[in-house]
């Protein structure tokens, strides 16, 4: 990935930080975009754009364009930004469904739409989305989250067909990711079966690499050792 310019959304989160560090270690130049504030000074190889609401089309477009301008090109977009909630349908809040759709589907749509012209110009453009294994068969309480992630799956497939021969578009579908938040939420779970952020980063960065040039429209389960 030497010299490739990559945008990572949700870059200040548990998974985003690991993907960013792994990408930098492989020689990529990284623009991290996040809703949280960032204090990192920009360098030739790294820039962080904090305080960005990616559910807002104008803010998402401005962030993508700023990253492309900083590096003079854009070769990849990794859409990690999103959200999770656990809520039953019977006593659920319609606002929850709207929030999940905005955080998981619209963020990926807004950034992908803004990145497409830059990625086509690259000649080897890549988009990698984060879906969810739990969206293939949703459990009780997973309705709003799983429905939104299923939307990410369909977005991935549709965009892959639309951009075939120009930009590859794929998604990884993790099971439970081993993060501090998930450990706190599920203290009795068998953590040894979860997928680690580094393991997930390996798959994501493969899809962002030249080696994955023939892979597009794929929904790849990453389910640890379940």
Task: Please describe what this structure looks like.
This protein has 226 residues and is α/β, with parallel strands linked by helices. It has one domain (5-222): NAD(P)-binding Rossmann-like Domain (Rossmann fold, 3-Layer(aba) Sandwich). The protein is built from 6 helices and 7 strands. The protein has helices spanning 14-25, 57-71, 94-122, 143-162, 180-185, 197-207, and strands at residues 5-9, 29-33, 46-49, 76-79, 125-130, 167-174, 219-222. Strand 1, helix 1 (14-25) and strand 2 (29-33) form a beta-alpha-beta unit. Helix 1 (14-25) crosses helix 6 and helix 2 (57-71) runs parallel beside helix 3 (94-122). The longest helix has 29 residues, at 94-122. It starts with a strand and ends with a strand. The model has no long low-confidence stretch (mean pLDDT 96). Belongs to the short-chain dehydrogenases/reductases (SDR) family. It comes from Bradyrhizobium uaiense. Pfam families: adh_short.
CATH topology: Rossmann fold
Oligomeric grouping of the chains: single chain
Proportion of strand residues: 15-25%
Number of domains: 1
The major sheet is characterized as: 7 strands, parallel
The total of beta strands comes to 7
Corresponding CATH architecture: 3-Layer(aba) Sandwich
Order of helices and strands: EHEEHEHEHEHHE
Low-confidence stretches: none
Question: Numbering strands along the chain, what is their spatial order in the largest sheet?
Answer: 3-2-1-4-5-6-7
CATH homologous superfamily grouping: NAD(P)-binding Rossmann-like Domain
How many distinct helices? Answer: 6
Residues in helix, %: 40-55%
The shape is globular
CATH class: Alpha Beta
- What is the average of the pLDDT values? 96
The Cα radius of gyration reads 17 Å
* Amino- and carboxy-terminal Cα gap: 30 Å
- Which structural class is indicated by helix and strand composition? alpha/beta
Protein name: SDR family NAD(P)-dependent oxidoreductase
GO molecular function, one term: oxidoreductase activity, acting on the CH-OH group of donors, NAD or NADP as acceptor
InterPro entries: NAD(P)-bd_dom_sf (IPR036291), Sc_DH/Rdtase_CS (IPR020904), SDR_fam (IPR002347)
Family: Belongs to the short-chain dehydrogenases/reductases (SDR) family.
């Amino acid at each position: 990935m030497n010299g490739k310019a990559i945008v990572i959304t949700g870059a200040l989160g548990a998974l985003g930080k690991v993907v960013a560090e792994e990408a930098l270690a492989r020689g990529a130049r990284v623009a991290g975009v996040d809703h949280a504030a960032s204090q990192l000074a920009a360098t030739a190889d790294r820039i962080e754009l904090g305080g960005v609401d990616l559910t807002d089309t104008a803010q998402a477009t401005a962030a993508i364009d700023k990253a492309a301008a900083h590096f003079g090109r854009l070769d990849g977009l990794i859409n990690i930004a999103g959200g999770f909630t656990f809520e039953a349908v019977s006593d659920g809040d319609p606002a929850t469904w709207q929030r999940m759709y905005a955080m998981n589907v619209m963020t990926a749509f807004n950034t992908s739409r803004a990145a497409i012209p830059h990625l086509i110009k690259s000649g080897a453009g890549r988009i990698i989305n984060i879906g969810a294994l739990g969206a293939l068969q949703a459990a009780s309480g997973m309705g709003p989250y799983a429905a939104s992630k299923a939307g990410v799956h369909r977005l991935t497939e549709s965009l892959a067909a639309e951009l075939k021969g120009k930009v590859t578009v794929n998604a990884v579908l993790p099971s439970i990711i081993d993060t501090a938040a998930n450990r706190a939420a599920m203290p009795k779970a068998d953590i040894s079966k979860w997928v680690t952020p580094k393991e997930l980063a390996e798959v994501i960065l493969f899809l962002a690499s030249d080696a994955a040039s023939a892979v597009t429209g794929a929904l790849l389960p990453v389910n640890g050792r379940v």
